[in-house]
Every structure is written in structure tokens, then in C-alpha cells.
Design goal:
Beta-Lactamase; six-stranded antiparallel beta sheet; elongated
């Protein structure tokens, strides 16, 4: 701060200012002890004004005053500042003639101060803090009497005695307050430990007790929460105060101060989150957070989460608050470890119950055997229902040894053929078998066995699981379907043979009919019987049509028997299409239809059976012409 050149250098001394601040006197209210001292000083020195003045870095402030209205002045109005460097009592008989004070506004102004006598207020460590002074509006060439000077210095000593008493009382109150705070923290810690002990391994109850206890021990915390790790995220649990409504919030491990605390395992005191680059900025605004404490929470020596306390004010937490939070976080390690073990036991029991429920409701039987003995150590009720007898053996290996079953060809199943034995004793990774099984009541039923090896963490086999299925209905259906298929195939073969035989028998006489009709037509033309030619042509046409039908039937038979022969050759697509169009032209025109060809300039060639292609096109166009009129 800028000061006038006439201000003594002692004003800005850092040790002096620190000593003044240590007393905590500035801007405090009136106190009778100090008021009594200025009253005595005024009377003893017969002065109209007496002041207890303290000189700060930027002002002069009066703790007690008599005969002077202002409670402080600027440094350019301060006379007491000159007492800081005086060897003893500072006496200025005429302020208007002293070069240090003649330009002081209190001297040149309406106040018209003329006389000053000030005894320095000196701390035990030697720093001067201000003065006890008397002031007059008239000069005093003779200054103070010896008795007045001694009395003024004695009263200055009493001012410092009041200061020391005052500081001692403040320190005592601070100590008592600290003791009360410590007692409150210890009580909160004891209550938290008791709550954790009575939580009966309930993780949520333990975390609630931790957050509630630490917030009671750190009053400056407006909100508290436990953030538990789930994969690559931290999830808010057990929130109180301003964080109660944010339970369930998820934060990434990377890019957040909570994640940094968890990963490093080190507690963090953040005075102002707006100045810390590790804080996730898009989260702190809705939380209303400015300062925070982060402490890792561990279970079994491994960090599993973070205890966070927050405030909406910067610099709300102290180092002591951080130590308290760490102490509370340390109290839950054992409780969380016990809760984790309890959760694991509950999970195991729940898993066993779930597995038993699943096994009991499966539509298949399940056998569990140990390796390498092959002894059955577990099963569900469905296995016994399918096999028709109990499955637990009295001795190792007795299970499959007493099972009786037959292969599809009637061979008995040997003991080493059972999938259970192949997996548990012979080390096969898996095995399957479908057999006709002799059930406990003597009936024979188809049963399927499918086994898979079970391996331990080291990869060595520990046992096997065998699935037992009732496949009797399926196998019987398969046999029925096989018989039906054989019957159908036999019938199809008989049909094909019949068609082939009949077609052959019919084709021979039809060929003779066609030949004779052609001969008769020639003879009728030669003999001049033109009127008989149309009838003979009809006979020939119908015979040829019937022959075509017979050929088609033979072709269908060949197709069904997969004996149709294909003669592949290259041919012009354009030529074949135009040839087919010319062939069906008369048939198309018969019912007033029109056939239009829309062919691109160069259709190129194709490589396939041209006869089959021509036949398909003729059949398609023939059907179209047959069922269309004037189209």
C-alpha cells in the first residue's frame, strides 16, 4: 500500500505487523479495562484527549478513546506512528513547529492539535504496536511533569497487561473449544464404531454410519458421500446433506479427483475445486461444491471407494479435518472386510439355491461325478425319473457298472463305453451315447447320455457332468419316419416303373398309327381323295399330341429319378427366341392374341441344353396363348 514519505519506516515492519495481528485486537468492541486506562491518563496529565492507539499497515485504529470522536484515522493523520521509533516516551511540545507533524491534517485543520505525549505499547518480544497518548489543543513548552511521564508509562504497561490477559483468555477459549471439538470428534468416532459393530456385516449400514459419523465430527462439511468402485466407474452410495439427492451418480475413474484418490490411494484436501485441474468440471456445478476432502476407503488392504466431504465455500476444510476424515475412513476397513465375507457367503448360498432350483426344474437329468474315480456325487430328481432307479452308488465306480443298455444293433454297452467313464477316468473332454436302456422296472427305453469334463483352476480334470435325456419318443418317431420314407420311396419306384412300362407300351402302337396315317395321306393325295385328307391329318395330329404327352411323362419320371440327361451346346439366344415365336405364332393368333418381341441388338450366345430351353419357352407361351383372348 502507498504511504506518504513522512510515514516512519517502522510502520511497515513485517514482524511488528505479525505481532499486532497475533493479538487479534483490531476492530474489536469497547472493553472497560482499556476505557478506564484512557480516563486515568487524561486526568493524570490534565489533557482533553487520551487514546489507546494501534498502528496498522494502512491506518491508525483506537481501541479506547476519551475526548476524540473518530475511531480510526489514516496514516497521514497519525502522530502515534512516530512513537514506534522513539527511544522512550515521545513528547512533542508544539506539533505545529515540529517538522514531523507540522503538516499533519489534525494539526493544520479544525482539530488544531498542538501537544502530544505518547508512551509506546511494546509487546514482550520487543515489537511496538502503538501508543497510549495524551493530546492537547494548546502547546506545552514544558511538556509533562516527571510524575505525569512516569504515570503515562505505567499506564501503557497496564495496556499491554490487558492485551496479554486478553490474548491468554482467547487462547484458553481456543484450547477449551479445541478440547470440546476433540471430545465431540472422539464421541462421534466411538458412536460410529459402535454403529459399525452393530451393523452385523451389513455393508450399507456400515457406510451410512461412516458418513453420518464423519459429518458430525467435521461441522464444516455440508455434504458427505461414499463413492464405491464398479468397474471403471465410481458410484455414489450412502449420501447425506447436500449429496443425499445425488446417490446413484456415476463418475469415471479417469478424469476425476475421486478416481485419482482411489487409484493413488492418497487422501486429498482440495481448497478450491475451481482451481484444481483434476476435478471433473461438468459434475461440480450441480453438486454446489467449492472445496472438498477425498479419502480412500479400503477393504482387506485394497481401496474399494472414496469418502468425500464437500462445502459450497472455498477453504472450508483444514488439515485437522483431513486427519479426522482419514481416521474415520480407517475404522470401517475391518467391518467392510467382514461384510464382504458375509456377502460372499450369501452369494454362495444364493448360487447354490439357484443351481438346485435350476437342476430340479430341468427337463433332463444331470449327474455330477468326480475324477478320476467316476463316483457320482450329485444328481437331480429328473435323472432318477428317466433311469427308473437311484443313481448314487455305494462305492466308487458302482454307478455305470450296474447300468444295463444296448446299442441299436443289439450289442450290450460295455462299462468303458459310458460317457461318464470316458470323461472322468479316461480324460476325454466330452462323450455322447444313445442306447436302449433297461430301466429299474425292467422296461426298455431309449436314453441319451452326453458328458463334458470339468477342470480346476490349474486346468487339471476334477470331474464330469453328464446330461441324461429321455429320447424314447424321438427315436421311435425317427424309426416311424424311416419306415414311412422307405414305403414312400418304394411306392415312387413302383410308380416310375409303371409309367415307364406303360409309356413304352403306348409309344410303340402310337408310332405305328403316325406312320400309317402319313402313308394313307400320301395314297389319298395320289388317288385324288382330297376330301378325306383333313380327317387323316387330325388322326396324325392327335397321335403326335398323345406321343408328346407320353414323352413328357417319361421326362418327369427321369427327373424324379434324377436320370434326366442334359446336352450342353452353344447357341444364339436371338435365333432361339425368334424360332420359338414363329412356332407358337399360329397358336397365339388362334384366340386373337398378339405376341411382340422386344429384343436388344446383340443378345449374344448361351451355353446349355437348347432343346430344354426351347421346350420351356414353348410350354410357357402355349399356356399363355391358351388362357388369353384378344390380349
Amino acid at each position: 500500500m502507498n504511504r506518504r514519505a513522512s510515514t516512519p519506516a517502522e510502520v511497515g515492519d513485517g514482524r511488528r505487523l505479525n505481532a499486532l495481528a497475533d493479538y487479534g485486537i483490531l476492530d474489536t468492541g469497547p472493553e472497560k479495562g482499556f476505557d478506564d486506562i484512557v480516563l486515568l491518563a487524561r486526568r493524570l496529565c490534565a489533557a482533553p484527549v487520551a487514546l489507546v492507539s494501534f498502528v496498522a499497515s494502512d491506518r491508525q485504529w483506537f481501541k479506547a478513546r476519551s475526548g476524540f470522536a473518530p475511531c480510526e484515522t489514516s496514516l497521514d493523520r497519525s502522530v502515534c506512528a512516530h512513537a514506534l521509533g522513539a527511544p522512550d516516551l515521545l513528547v512533542i511540545p508544539d506539533l505545529s513547529s515540529d517538522p514531523r507533524t507540522r503538516n499533519n491534517p489534525l494539526v493544520t485543520g479544525k482539530e488544531g492539535l498542538r501537544f502530544y505525549a505518547g508512551a509506546p505499547l511494546e509487546a514482550a518480544s520487543g515489537e511496538r504496536l502503538g501508543s497510549l497518548c495524551v493530546i492537547d489543543t494548546a502547546p506545552r513548552p514544558g511538556g509533562l511533569t516527571e510524575e505525569q511521564a512516569e504515570s503515562l508509562q505505567a499506564l501503557a504497561g497496564q495496556v499491554m497487561a490487558q492485551m496479554e490477559l486478553r490474548r491468554a483468555a482467547s487462547e484458553r477459549e481456543r484450547i477449551l473449544s479445541g478440547q470440546e471439538t476433540l471430545i465431540a470428534q472422539q464421541n462421534a468416532l466411538i458412536a460410529t464404531q459402535a454403529a459399525i459393530s452393530s451393523a452385523a456385516s451389513n455393508r450399507d449400514a456400515i457406510l451410512d454410519a461412516l458418513v453420518g459419523g464423519v459429518m458430525a465430527a467435521v461441522p464444516s462439511a455440508q455434504g458427505g458421500v461414499i463413492e464405491l468402485r464398479e468397474g471403471d466407474e465410481l458410484v455414489y452410495r450412502s449420501g447425506l446433506g447436500t449429496l443425499a439427492d445425488h446417490v446413484g451418480l456415476r463418475l469415471p475413474l479417469s478424469g476425476s479427483l475421486s478416481g485419482h484418490t482411489l487409484i493413488t490411494g492418497k487422501a486429498v484436501l482440495c481448497p478450491d475445486v475451481l482451481l484444481d485441474h483434476r476435478v471433473k468440471r461438468d459434475v461440480i456445478a450441480p453438486l454446489g461444491m467449492r472445496s472438498a476432502i477425498y479419502v480412500p476407503v479400503s477393504r482387506g488392504g485394497a481401496p474399494i471407494g472414496v469418502l468425500k466431504l464437500q462445502s459450497s465455500h472455498p477453504d472450508a476444510f483444514s488439515g485437522r479435518d483431513l486427519r479426522v476424515a482419514k481416521q474415520f475412513a480407517g475404522t470401517v476397513a475391518a467391518g467392510l472386510a467382514e461384510a464382504g465375507e458375509a456377502d460372499a457367503r450369501r452369494d454362495v448360498r444364493a448360487g447354490e439355491d439357484t443351481l438346485r432350483t435350476v437342476l430340479d426344474n430341468l427337463p433332463v437329468g444331470v449327474l455330477i461325478a468326480e475324477a478320476p474315480s467316476g463316483r457320482i456325487v450329485g444328481h437331480n430328481a429328473r435323472a432318477e425319473a428317466i433311469l427308473g432307479h437311484g443313481v448314487l452308488p455305494a462305492a466308487p465306480g458302482e454307478g455305470p457298472a450296474r447300468w444295463i443298455a444296448f446299442h441299436e444293433d443289439g450289442r450290450p454297452v460295455a462299462p468303458d463305453e459310458w460317457p461318464l467313464v470316458r470323461v472322468t477316468r479316461h480324460g476325454e473332454p466330452g462323450a455322447e451315447l444313445e442306447v436302449e436302456y433297461r430301466r429299474g422296472d425292467g422296461t426298455i427305453s431309449w436314453v441319451g447320455f452326453s458328458a463334458a469334463a470339468m477342470n480346476g483352476a490349474d486346468g487339471h480334470p476334477t470331474g464330469g457332468v453328464v446330461v441324461v435325456s429321455d429320447i424314447d419318443a424321438r427315436k421311435r418317431s425317427e424309426r416311424q419316419l424311416a419306415a414311412a420314407k422307405a414305403t414312400a420311396e418304394e411306392a415312387n419306384r413302383a410308380k416310375s416303373e409303371f409309367l415307364a412300362n406303360m409309356s413304352h407300351e403306348l409309344r410303340t402302337p402310337l408310332s405305328a398309327v403316325i406312320g400309317y396315317s402319313e402313308m394313307l395321306q400320301e395314297e389319298m393325295e395320289d388317288a385324288g381323295h382330297e376330301d378325306l385328307l383333313p380327317d387323316m391329318r387330325k388322326i396324325e395330329s392327335n397321335a403326335r399330341h398323345l406321343l408328346g404327352l407320353i414323352n413328357d411323362v417319361l421326362d418327369l419320371s427321369k427327373i424324379e429319378a434324377e436320370h434326366m440327361e442334359v446336352y450342353v451346346e452353344d447357341f444364339s439366344v436371338d435365333a432361339v427366341v425368334r424360332d420359338v415365336a414363329a412356332t407358337v405364332e399360329a397358336l397365339v393368333a388362334k384366340k386373337g392374341n398378339a405376341l411382340r418381341l422386344d429384343l436388344r441388338g446383340d443378345l449374344g450366345s448361351a451355353h446349355t441344353d437348347v432343346t430344354k430351353v426351347r421346350q420351356c419357352l414353348i410350354n410357357l407361351l402355349g399356356n399363355a396363348a391358351k388362357f388369353t383372348e384378344n390380349g
